[in-house]
């Protein structure tokens, strides 16, 4: 392959040079005038020609005044014969020095080359470039095997420390310990303690896994290598594995060091899961990780950090002791942590006098650190758009809604009829929530459409409880049904606006039945519903499913739950129809009702929340 391309290069170069030389000689002098045979004969007869060189069919003519000219004789006939045919004066011809040249070999070949080989030359040159390109590609393929290792912190350049990470106390503690291991290994080795090999950070997207790893990089003071496993998933089988090998080799060379594999689930999925081909590459890569982690010597002070938001799909071999034996779960922040995170990200933003981040934290349950950062950013954008110098509390509240529901669509023209339907729909949600003891309190109602929602009712849990009861779920489900029920009662019709409510309610009901054992009919049995199954993978084949008879029973139970939620919602709305009208009326007037105003409004009616 190599010698072939080398030859081509040599040949191409020579041909190019020949062509160059040729064209140089051709273009060296001014081109002599070309004469027709008639003109030539006339000139000979007039005695104006001193010399003619004949080579092949070409005639090089020198005139008396010293100028040159060319002409062509007829093909396949002698020179004098041609001239005779044109009636040359024989005596005049005799005055001309005639020289007949053998067509020289070189000239002949140059002519042939120029005419027939030049296109070929161009073609060859083209192929040559193609070859070069292919060779480049080949080199790239070889380069694929090299891990795309980045020394030091992933992402941004600025150094991150543990103080930049709010909350996540347990995770931080664990990682501080790791950093300590790396800084004073002797202390631990003397005690006979093994240095952990792998630490797996698990948490939902945006919960701060990468951030925490960056903090470790900033604090540890040892070389920190960063790769993202998603970069391994390449077309070529074996590339991922060789990259892993490369990464571990580099990390070992610089030990003590930390190797951070971000998004390891991209390669660390359960082997055997996934149908068809395409997972071979992942398997090989995963196997290589396992091999490398087993190959660590105890003195080899390399700690492997990995992060994933899908610990459920990870291969159990990865989680075995000696590999990622430390697993750190990053929970979504609770209220206090959210306030801390907001404070951290508010540092470089000008907040208006008296802005309180606590209520922002209250209104953002379930938000990740990244979401909270986004809230502050959106608030800053809103403030800038209003040409203000500082960010107000209102900007913050508005941005929460924007992050959750999408931007307000003020421009959308809504007919009075549609507005009326939306007002009663949202009032229905709010009233059902207010009339049930176990429902979450209403924070805000609005009929300004946002994103895909026509209007919305914001309800927030008073305390963040990880445990939920059946009664709470029932109240939640009834609240979801509130909009639908209200439309039926007041408008005597159902709009498409209720569809996402119904969808959510159905999902909740199904979970109650199949997951939490909250149905008396089905009892305490959990069924796989495919929610978390690896797509078309192992679970698809092996996990136990419900029988057809059981499926039918589950379906009927789910529907029973939904019906009782609907009945409950309707009962509440019919009982308090006056309040429903009042809320809807206020909504039509003001479009948005905040929590205090809502509470005032209900107070007038002396509503007593019902216990289910
Ligand atoms: P992931 O867990 O998906 O890797 P990241 O670590 O990339 O999430 O977090 C995204 C961003 O969210 C971070 O850059 C940071 O600004 C913010 N963030 C997340 N969690 C926290 C936290 N506990 N404290 C401060 N900022 C956080
Ligand atoms: Mg990340
Ligand atoms: Zn609704």
Distance between the termini: 82 Å
Proportion of helical residues: 40-55%
Query: Which CATH architecture of the largest domain is right?
Result: Up-down Bundle
Strand percent estimate: 5-15%
What is the CATH fold-level name of the largest domain? Methane Monooxygenase Hydroxylase, Chain G, domain 1
What does this structure look like?
The protein has 612 residues and is of the alpha/beta class. The chain has four domains: 2-106, 2-Layer Sandwich (Signal recognition particle alu RNA binding heterodimer, srp9/1); 150-330, Rossmann fold, CATH 3.40.50; 339-405, Orthogonal Bundle (Helicase, Ruva Protein, domain 3), CATH 1.10.8.60; 416-603, Peptidase M41 (Methane Monooxygenase Hydroxylase, Chain G, domain 1, Up-down Bundle), CATH 1.20.58.760. It is built from 21 helices and 14 strands. The chain has helices at 2-28, 37-45, 79-85, 90-94, 105-144, 169-183, 185-190, 209-220, 239-253, 280-294, 335-346, 358-362, 369-385, 393-405, 416-435, 470-491, 499-514, 538-542, 548-575, 577-590, 595-603, and strands at residues 33-34, 49-55, 58-63, 68-72, 97-101, 150-151, 198-203, 224-228, 257-262, 302-308, 326-330, 442-446, 456-459, 592-594. The strands form three sheets. It has a six-stranded mixed β-sheet with strand order 6-8-9-10-7-11, with helices on both faces. It is elongated. The protein starts with a helix and ends in a 9-residue tail after the last helix. The model is unreliable at 135-145 and 530-543 (pLDDT under 50). Bound molecules: adenosine-5'-diphosphate (ADP), magnesium ion and zinc ion (ZN). Magnesium ion is lined by residues 209-210, 262, 307.
């Amino acid at each position: 392959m190599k010698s072939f391309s080398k030859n081509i290069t040599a040949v191409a170069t020579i041909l190019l040079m020949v062509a160059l030389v040729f064209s140089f000689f051709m273009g060296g002098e001014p081109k002599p005038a070309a004469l027709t045979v008639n003109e030539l004969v006339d000139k000979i007869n007039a005695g104006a020609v001193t010399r003619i060189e004949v080579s092949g069919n070409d005639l090089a003519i020198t005139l008396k005044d010293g100028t040159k000219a060319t002409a062509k004789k007829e093909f396949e006939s002698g020179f004098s014969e041609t001239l005779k045919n044109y009636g040359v004066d024989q005596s005049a011809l005799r005055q001309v020095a005639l020289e007949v040249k053998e067509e020289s070999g070189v000239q002949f070949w140059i002519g042939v080359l120029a005419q027939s080989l030049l296109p070929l030359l161009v073609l060859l040159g083209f192929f040559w470039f193609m070859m070069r390109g292919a060779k480049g590609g080949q080199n790239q393929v070889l380069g694929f095997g090299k891990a795309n290792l980045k020394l030091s912190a992933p992402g941004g350049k600025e150094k991150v420390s543990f103080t930049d990470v709010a909350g996540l106390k347990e995770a931080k503690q664990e990682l501080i310990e790791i950093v300590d291991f790396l800084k004073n290994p002797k202390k631990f080795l003397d005690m006979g303690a093994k240095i952990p090999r792998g630490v797996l950070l698990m948490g939902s997207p945006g919960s701060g896994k990468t951030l925490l790893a960056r903090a470790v990089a900033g604090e540890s003071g040892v070389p920190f290598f960063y790769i993202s496993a998603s970069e391994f998933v390449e077309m070529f089988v074996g590339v991922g594995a060789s990259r892993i090998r490369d990464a571990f080799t580099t990390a070992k060379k610089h030990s003590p060091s930390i190797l951070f594999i971000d998004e390891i689930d991209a390669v660390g999925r359960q082997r055997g899961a996934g149908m068809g081909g395409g997972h071979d590459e992942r398997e090989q890569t995963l196997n290589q990780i396992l091999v490398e982690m087993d190959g660590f010597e105890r003195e080899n002070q390399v700690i492997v950090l990995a992060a994933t938001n899908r610990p459920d799909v990870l291969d159990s071999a990865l989680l075995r002791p000696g590999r990622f034996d430390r697993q750190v779960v990053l929970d979504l922040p609770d209220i206090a942590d959210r306030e801390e995170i907001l404070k951290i990200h508010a540092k470089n933003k000008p907040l208006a006098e008296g802005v309180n981040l606590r209520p922002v934290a209250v209104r953002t349950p379930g938000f990740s650190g990244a979401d909270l950062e986004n809230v502050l950013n959106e608030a800053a954008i809103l403030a800038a758009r209003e040409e203000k110098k500082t960010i107000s509390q209102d900007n913050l509240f508005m941005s929460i809604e924007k992050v959750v529901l999408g931007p307000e669509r003020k421009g959308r023209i809504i007919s009075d009829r549609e507005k009326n339907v939306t007002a009663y729909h949202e009032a229905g949600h709010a009233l059902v929530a207010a009339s049930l003891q176990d429902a979450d309190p209403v924070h805000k109602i609005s009929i300004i459409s946002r994103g895909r929602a026509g209007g919305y009712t914001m309800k927030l849990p008073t305390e963040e409880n990880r445990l939920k009861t059946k009664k709470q779920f029932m109240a939640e489900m009834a609240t979801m049904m509130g909009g639908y029920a209200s439309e039926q009662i007041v408008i005597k019709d159902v709009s498409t606006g209720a569809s996402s409510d119904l969808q959510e309610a159905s999902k909740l009901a199904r979970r109650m039945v199949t997951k939490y054992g909250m149905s008396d009919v089905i009892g305490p049995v959990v069924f796989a519903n495919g929610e978390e199954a690896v797509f078309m993978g192992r679970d698809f084949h092996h996990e136990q499913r419900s029988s057809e008879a059981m499926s039918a029973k589950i379906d009927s139970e789910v529907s029973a739950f939904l019906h009782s939620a609907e009945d409950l919602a309707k009962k509440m709305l019919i009982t308090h129809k006056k309040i429903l009208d009042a809320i809807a009326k206020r909504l039509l007037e003001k479009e948005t009702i905040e929590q205090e105003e809502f509470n005032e409004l209900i107070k007038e009616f002396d509503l007593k929340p019902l216990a289910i």
